[in-house]
Amino acid sequence: MQLESIFYFPSLNETFFIIINTVSITIGLCLIVYGLIKQKKHKKSTLATCCMVLGSLTIITHIIQIVAKLL
Keywords, A to Z (predicted)? Predict the structure, then answer.
């Protein structure tokens, strides 16, 4: 029995993968902008800080995925 038949994982089309990552990066940018606007209106807002951190992490992880997929 071959290992490939046991551990078969269907993969998405590469262009579809890049489109999903691009949309996620755009959502991350929107979260950062929303957090910055909310931070400007309310000086110490936990929601604004969470949005900015979550947006930054989303952008970083999806950029790493795109770079890893292209290499």
Answer: Membrane, Transmembrane, Transmembrane helix
